[in-house]
Amino acid sequence: MDFLRKYKIILLIIVSILIIITVIFFFFPKGLSNNSSKQNEDCSNIPELEDNAVRMVTKIIDGDTVLIEGGYSIRLLGIDADERGKPCYGIAKERLEEIVLNKEVRLELGNDNLDQWCRYLRYLFVDDRNIGLEMTKEGLVVARASGEDSKYQSEIALAEKSAIDNKVGCKWGGYGAISTESNSIDRNSYNWSKLTSELTGLKVIESCLANEYYGKEIIVEGWVADVYKSSTDTIFLNFENAYPNQCFVAVIFNSYQDQFVQNPEEYYSNQMIRIRGEIKEYAGKPEIILKSAEQIEIGKE
User: Fold this and answer.
1) Is the pLDDT of residue 69 over 80?
2) E-assigned strands of 18-63?
């Protein structure tokens, strides 16, 4: 009797496992992965996309990313647009839709083929119009050099300067370049695991108060509203407002960038972060020079 009872229990467990496997197979045949694109994390199934390939744009993700026929992502080179929830996200996305959605575009290769998310990196043209350059001229995106890729960089940088000087578009016309307070970002909703007063013994201040603490080691908290990478590969994280109206700057020189994540200019953009270090003054603005990833933390909501 004991043997039969144990046999029935084992049989019941096996049947239950088979039922669970069957349910998973039929109802979740592809697991829990995101199927909005055919691209995956290791880029193993990404086909070749030749330089100057012509493809149809089928969907707009935001102001600097589109999908082409086949469901593959294209990240526009030379520019950076607001992410969802940021001031100029909707305006830039809608404008890009007007220009390229359901149209054939020419995709010009830059220095690199793919980024770390398996998106093709391309300059996007409609006829002879450089769409990234056009979006920059209209003040909807910011100029963004990618690594050593300098193709069209000077044209896009000049277009951005003109947009800034003339206060053109969402980014520079007074709507996109406003403080995080007026964007209703709830600073209390962010959690910190390492750069806290309790763990470091340092005072935490908001970035727009940094000019009151020159020469002191402190923790500065704020929103990275704008990022710039210079011709010498120095990265500038501008807090609260885009350059030249930033409250505070975090600087990562090229010689220290191997201490940080790959492409820190993208990783830290549009993030609530804390910076630890001694505040110094440069060109009338407070700044901290970052030499290690231990000096910086992204807030978690």
Assistant:
1) yes
2) 53-62
Domains, in order of start, for the chain: 53-172 (2.40.50.90), 192-298 (2.40.50.140)
- pLDDT the model gives residue 84: 79
- The answer to whether residue 25 scores a pLDDT higher than 60 is no
Give the confidence band of 34 by pLDDT, cuts at 50, 70, 90: very low
What's the token pair of residue 141?
């995106």
Structure tokens at 185: 């970002």
> How much of the chain is helix, strand and coil, in % rounded to 5?
30, 30, 40
CA distance to 4, 74, 130, 225, 236, per residue, from 248 (Å): 75, 33, 33, 11, 10
Q: How far apart are the first and last CA of the chain?
A: 57
How far is residue 298 CA from its own chain's centroid? 13
What global pTM score does this model have? Answer: 0.50
Q: Give the Cα separation of 286 and 266 in Å (integer).
A: 22
**43 burial level (CB within 10 Å; 0-12, 13-18, 19+):** middle
User: How many whole angstroms separate alpha carbon 96 and alpha carbon 98?
Assistant: 5
Instruction: Over range 277-297, report the average pLDDT.
Output: 94
Residue type, 152: Y
Q: Helices (H), strands (E): how many in the chain?
A: 7, 16
Tokens read off for 113 = 């083929």
pLDDT digits 0-9 by tens, 2-17: 555 656 666 667 767 7
